[in-house]
Specification:
Elements lengths: L3 E10 L3 H12 L6 E13 L5 E13 L2
Antiparallel strand pairs: 1-3, 2-3
Length: 67
């Protein structure tokens, strides 16, 4: 039998959406073992004065199997 837990994390990157997700999961994996997946709940962007995207932000739920 296995049991999974879900936590919510936030991550950001000026490089793009994929980098924000990847960087968040990479950082979470330093303290959480057995990550199995993630759901992106929310996407937000910060813009500069000309309306160009300066940073991508995501909130995501991360699931991992308990040992």
């Amino acid at each position: 039998m296995s049991v999974a837990k879900v936590i919510e994390i936030s991550s950001s990157s000026p490089k793009g959406l994929e980098a924000a997700v990847t960087d968040g999961l990479k950082r979470a994996s330093k303290s959480i073992k057995n990550i199995r997946g993630a759901w992106v709940n929310e996407i937000k962007v910060d813009t500069d004065e000309q309306g160009r995207v300066s940073e991508w932000r995501v909130n995501m739920r991360v699931s991992f199997v308990l040992e």
